[in-house]
Amino acid sequence: MTNKKSFYITTPLYYANDELHIGHAFSTLAADIAARYNRSCDNKVHFLTGSDEHGQKVEQAAKAKGLTPLAHTDALVEKFKSLWETLDITYDDFIRTTEERHTKVVKYALSKLYEKGDIYEAEYKGWYCTPCERFWTEKEVPEKLCPDCKRSVQEITEKNYFFKMSVYQNKLIEHINNNPGFIRPENRKNEVLGFLKQPLGDLCISRPKSRLSWGIDLPFDENYVTYVWFDALTNYISAIGYPFDLDKFNQTWPASCHIIGKDILTTHAVYWSTMLLALDLPLPECIFAHGWWVTGEGKMSKSVGNVINPRQLVADYGLDPFRFYLFREMVFGQDATYTKENFIMRYNADLANDYGNLCNRMLPLLIKNRDGVFNKTDANLPETKEIIKLAAEVKEGYVKAMDNFLFHEGLAKIWSLVQRLNKYVDETAPWKLAKEQNFALLDEVFYTIGEGIRFCTVLVEPFMPHMAPEFLKQIGCDGKNYSIASLEWGQLTDKSKCTEPKPLFPRLETERIQNLKKSKAEPVVKPVEPQTEIEGIITFDDFMKTQLCVAKILTAEKVENADKLLKLTVDTGDATNTLVAGIASYYKPEEIIGMQVLMVKNLKPAKIRGILSHGMILAAETPEGGLALMTPNKPAKTGVRVK
Ligand code: MSP
User: Are residues 490 and 611 in the same domain?
Assistant: First the structure.
């Protein structure tokens, strides 16, 4: 064993109450991509996933099937593992919360905190949501509906055990402020800091067996089982040896990143962090809360009936396009909408046209004119020099993005090179060079394209682990010899002989096109006449009168007696403005705090519901009739003018 600490990445432990959909697959794929990327950078990696098997939801699901909870979770765990196999997830360990290696650590942690006085017994009165297994305070449920799932809550009074979370509140706030990368992305960090502005209550960590028996017994009171979150969160340390194999534990902990969805941010950022502080353990380096995959009906969930089955997408389009699509389409951290049309558009534009075509256009020419061999030459053309420079910049930008879990940015960097290479093919027209028998230049052009393809392919491998080696094979490289750590321009040698290309990403046709073809109807795309007359046309000078800027939302709150309005304060670089926006039906205040939005700055102030509103933020309707705030697609400088 070396002393180098592992890059330790985790997924949430999925509830073993139902089958998984693309939302769950997404978190696991994100962790897999981070793991593969780090391995390719020569880092030691430990990748953990697993199943959350205790609690009411699981108990109820088992009862509904007439099974014991364990028989029920055994069957589901097999399904989880088989899905991870289908998605080629390279996890190192799979932990089940029903395993002894886990339950004994939960008991150890509980005893330690009980002995320390951080767990105490008290009478508890609160409003309980059974499906969410969560208590709410009187104030949080004015209409006696669960704020999360909107189902009715019941008032319950009982003796319980509490973890003194409140003791660690200030320490946690300090840690978040001193470690800017701890909770990501930035708007989620602000959400947690906003939550921590209120005094933190203590956490009820027990459930009386009379109400729930499927859980880990409290070591100090056999009439109770452990609250499922206290149990499940402990997996991140129980799986790596805490406290019984400290050698292993110290080589792995703290986690480099817990990948989670935004729905479980509080439990991770607040419950888990305070648990670790109480156990005197370091906090994870990063908790990354990504957004949700939604369809027209909102967040994907079985009860809404709008789930997309990952197996179906893999069967229809192949694994690598599926993996690619999820991370190219979603700005990691924000929500994204899945539609079939959108999938096909992305596939055709990025994979079939841009990436796949590079090989398909080049390799037959190379085989015909240079016997399939890439002859290494000096870079003479200014375009070649430009590409070599761009490749180095792309690698640097990609590494920076991937080190920060910004997967969409990593892919965008690669595609900037793919697109530049396609332009290079058009600029240099190798088919003409071949006709003119200008072999010196032809070699330079082929080598640049071949090397460019290799560069992009090595970088894209964590996303497309099957297609990448196929691409490398086509340009005569053995994929095993390449890694991101050693990637440099110029490694392609004349020993690399390309093989006859087969299209790796054949174009997909949308159903609409297919149906039209069948009925021999009009072509779908009609040539569009250039528009000369547009109604309400303005001049450039007119447009420049509107001062559009990037504003950062500092606070957001509901406007009293106005369901649709939020009162916002925004940072516009040189000032803090107050404004009222009609977005309350689409965004919760805590969702948008910290977000950058586009705003019209020089709008005449107007009074709305007694509040003077300075400016207007921009939003557009979504295909489902929702509303999307216009935000820069990467962090911009707050206050800058949008031109
Ligand atoms: N068991 C808890 C987690 C315990 S972690 C110690 C749990 N399980 S879950 O099965 O409900 O999985 C929730 C996670 O699945 C989310 O946090 C997110 O990572 C992922 N997703 C579930 N639905 C999702 C979408 N629609 N979109 C993206 N990811 C979502 O919570």
Answer: no
